[in-house]
């Protein structure tokens, strides 16, 4: 009976440790990353889907995103320990040692790049490597603590997934995936600035130079509104350039005008509740936009 209890306890502890390592990869964020990457793959193909290539590319890109997230956790330990939003992360609580997290990130990075190079193509492996470097080191170590435009430049890495998905299938960079890249690139600042407005005190305590901290909340709200207009404009480019049809155009206009309207209300009311609501909606917005792309593509393909 005692052995059974001990075994059950060991399994329980193992499960907790495994989940802690998984949580380091920011799985909820990676779900959206992987969705945009897979949409990029599907848009690059016709009716004949290469399921094996999609699977291998998805695993490779997913591992790379996970590795970058883990490195970000390691670098941000001090910041995370100060901010209420991140105090419960595994490294802050001491549940996982930083060195073990680094080993895990290195394993995922090497596995990702080897998979992409061997089973997908070299171009995608190179672009993925660049993404890891930009997010893990250039953004997390340097840009994040440099100035208020940290998230704008750092957004390059976050905007890469649809391009990586496209190159996984075509082995070349083309205009359509570059527009998808620009959509996420322009989506990133209002998405994160809305959160930074809501979590202003957290970022101020951690001394992270996010736009609301360095220039004030009003300035940040204004720029969220301006970026929402830019986002709406770039989001209709796939239709204007003939890459998508009316389904995408109509859907994107609806969700885009809502984004702009919500950003305007945030600027006018100066409500922190509207800031977190806009942050949450921005996630839904991006998922819907790529969903409209996919529905539109297969509707006109059939």
How is this structure best described in words?
Helix 3 runs antiparallel to helix 9 (161-170) and helix 10 (175-198) runs antiparallel to helix 16. The longest helix is centred in the last third of the chain and has 30 residues, at 272-301. The protein has 16 helices and no strands. It folds into two domains: 16-172, Orthogonal Bundle (Tetracycline Repressor, domain 2), CATH 1.10.357.140; 174-302. The protein has helices at 2-24, 27-43, 51-75, 77-82, 90-93, 98-120, 122-142, 150-158, 161-170, 175-198, 200-205, 211-215, 217-235, 237-240, 246-269, 272-301. By secondary structure, the chain is mainly alpha-helical.
Question: Any descriptors?
Answer:
single chain; 302 residues; Tetracycline Repressor, domain 2; 2 domains; 16 helices
Provide the number of structural domains.
Answer: 2
Assign the CATH architecture of the largest domain: Orthogonal Bundle
**What kind of sheet is the major sheet?**
none
Beta-strand residue percentage: under 5%
- The radius of gyration computed from the alpha-carbon positions, rounded to a whole number of angstroms, is 20 Å
Output the CATH class name of the largest domain. Answer: Mainly Alpha
The dominant shape is globular
Helix share, percent: over 70%
Within CATH, the superfamily of the largest domain carries the name UbiA prenyltransferase
Query: From N to C, what is the helix and strand string?
Result: HHHHHHHHHHHHHHHH
Which whole number gives the mean pLDDT?
Answer: 92
Question: CATH topology of the largest domain, what is it called?
Answer: Tetracycline Repressor, domain 2
| Extended strand count | 0
Structural class: mainly alpha
Low-pLDDT segments: none
